[in-house]
Amino acid sequence: MHVSNIRLKTNKTEKSLSKTEDKEFRKTYLKLTRKITHNTMENNLTYHIAEQLWRMDKSFDNLIEEKLFKLLIY
Description:
single chain, mainly alpha, 3 helices, globular
């Protein structure tokens, strides 16, 4: 997964989020901004955004399983 600081061009038109999508977006956005304002993650912002996207919609067991698998490979 790659995260860019530059806005990417697209042919798709923007659409409004549903109420549940909007709630999830706000929750994730607030978590990230809280961490940034506490000045703990300012230098690695793109890494933390990528990690939040990776964690989205995964259970704790799936996250642990993937992390352990990566540790065994490397």
